[in-house]
Amino acid sequence: MKKLTFDEAMERIADDRPLKRDEVQERALNRTVWRASNGIPGCLDDSFGLYETKRDAADSLIDSFRHTGDMVVPRGMVRALLGPGTTTSFAQPGEAYLFRVERMTLRDCL
Known about the structure:
By secondary structure, this protein is of the alpha+beta class. The protein is built from five helices and four strands. Strands 2-1-4-3 form a four-stranded antiparallel β-sheet. It is elongated. The mean pLDDT is 91.
């Protein structure tokens, strides 16, 4: 059976179809992805997505914030999510809800 490429695996994930590590090429499993998630720390995430770039992951979180009813993106959110490091996050002062971007491999996600 032919193993899936990185793009094919990402498409399956985006379509919320089942995927196992042994169905994906080794080279694809070692590729870096950025996981964008939001939710209350210590609980299951309300939502998450996988992206090829940190910018795309951060943009998805910023867009999701815009759709919460608060039309203005909080000061410092973009800078915090795009800041240096393999894991970046943002929470508004006094709130527990967290927006997070983290780097991992596709293997880590499966």
